[in-house]
Specification:
The protein is mainly alpha-helical. It is built from 23 helices and 2 strands.
């Protein structure tokens, strides 16, 4: 049995397949757009490569699209058939088992299988990155950090994937509130792996969470080569830059980035829809007219109402439908979510039930102008919102909607407490949103005070 470029054992036999497999893994670690092309070459050269089929299936499941589940199922069948016909290592079996668990609605079990691989092969970057990616979907920031820190000692300074590991460590540190260490790790990651878009974006998260939009813009400007090679992840990095300009009140620049980068291709990937819907929602909360930009997002989201793969995706589709005033599609999506939540429970439907149902009811009420109802439902969702997946920066749109619903409903004290929670999560730092809401709170209290009748 040979070894790949990271020193991991591989059952591949031909030079062309081995080279393509190395390229597949390196591209995956860097979120490269060429990843599926390289993987296709591997499986074309050696169609009995069980690990390649397992990884293909996991890649498809991470896209969060119901129509891709049959393709992932076919990949699992191909992996099992290959395993029956030839030798398969315990390491490769762990990836196959991870795919099967995910297909059965148990991505948390997928993580356990991948962690089993990492116990035997702690310097396996493929298992590390896949575990990290699935934990991200599950909203498990603490688990991401534990996983990376367990294997960190096994990566020698000259390990070919050490930079990518540090990029994952940076993101996990940021999501668990260790911002100073996260910035150091992310900068080191990019120094070691100049195409590590994940590490670069982890540092952008640090600037977001510490309220330093100007510093974040400076960090991203001039480093475009670190994400220009990416798949749709490149739109997400542009989204981060747009958020920074929004925080500084540079609305024209935000729209330029939205039109020229974030939605230039108008894809229907849920991650791209989440970038767009959350940015438009933030703009509208700031009183900015977004024109007709909701329309194309609502058109796409109206076709995704029956998907139900990820509650994170569902909530952003719902934002688009609310923005586009698609009442029939909103009703379809909310009915399907209720049905999913009350049906057979697995990792994903549990998250539809909690926090999904309360969050969706809150978003719908906000769109209807029922701010008291929106505040009540969104507050119900807050304690478990992390389970929806994504990052602090991505989920912040729901926090902003909660705070604004409270302010509009006259729940000033309660909204201010959430604003303080948001500040505490950011290690005491304040951003433009916080400053603007403090002004609104002060104005509301001033108006209330002036309306009081003096005692006679």
């Amino acid at each position: 049995m040979g070894h790949d470029c990271f020193g991991q054992p591989t059952s591949l036999e031909t030079d062309i397949a081995c080279r393509a497999w190395d390229q597949t893994q390196l591209a995956f670690l860097a979120h490269g757009a060429e990843t599926p092309i390289h993987l296709g070459k591997v499986l074309q050269a050696e169609p009995q490569f069980a690990l390649g089929h397992a990884v293909k299936g996991l890649f498809y499941l991470l896209l969060g699209r119901r129509e891709l589940y049959p393709t992932a199922t076919q990949a699992l069948s191909a992996a099992k058939a290959a395993a029956r016909k030839g030798q398969i290592s315990a390491r490769e079996r762990g990836f196959v088992d991870a795919l099967e668990a995910y297909l059965h609605g148990k991505p948390s079990q997928s993580v356990r299988h991948l962690e089993g691989v990492l116990r035997a092969h702690p310097d396996d970057p493929l298992a590390m990155k896949l575990s990290h990616a699935i934990r991200f979907v599950l909203g498990d920031g603490a688990g991401m950090r534990r996983s990376v820190e367990r294997v960190l000692p096994s990566y020698a300074p000259d390990h070919k994937a050490r930079g990518y590991l540090l990029g994952c460590h940076s993101f996990a540190l940021e999501e668990t509130g260790d911002y100073a260490k996260a910035e150091i790790a992310g900068r080191q990651a990019l120094w070691m792996a100049p195409d590590d878009a994940w590490g670069l974006h982890a540092v952008a998260h640090v600037y977001d969470m510490t309220g330093d939009a100007a510093g974040g813009i400076d960090w991203l400007t001039g480093r475009e080569a670190a994400w220009s090679h990416c798949n749709n992840f490149r739109y997400h990095v542009w989204w981060h830059k747009a958020l920074m300009h929004l925080d500084l009140g540079q609305i024209d620049t935000v729209f330029d980035l939205y039109d020229a980068q974030i939605r230039a291709d108008q894809t229907d990937d849920y991650r791209d829809i989440s970038n767009a819907t959350s940015l438009l929602s933030r703009l509208e909360l700031n009183g900015v007219d977004v024109g007709d930009r909701w329309e194309e997002l609502a058109d796409i989201s109206a076709k995704r109402t029956e998907d139900g793969c990820l509650i994170f995706a569902d909530l952003h589709y719902l934002l688009a439908l609310i923005g586009g005033e698609r009442d029939e599609a909103i009703a379809r999506m909310m009915a399907r979510m209720q049905a999913d939540a009350s049906g057979m429970q697995d990792d994903l439907t549990q998250r539809i039930a909690d926090p999904g149902i309360a969050a969706s009811q809150g978003l719908h009420a906000f769109g209807e102008g029922d701010y008291a109802g929106a505040f009540r439902h969104l507050c119900d969702a807050r304690p478990t919102m992390r389970r929806a997946g994504g990052s602090h920066a991505q989920r912040d749109v729901f926090e902003r909607l909660t705070i604004d619903a409270g302010l509009r409903a006259g729940r000033i004290d309660a909204a201010e407490r959430i604003l303080e929670d948001r500040k505490a999560l950011r290690d005491g730092h304040e951003d433009g949103y916080t400053a603007a809401r403090r002004e609104l709170i002060a104005a509301a209290r001033g108006a209330a005070s002036s309306q009081q009748i003096p005692a006679q």
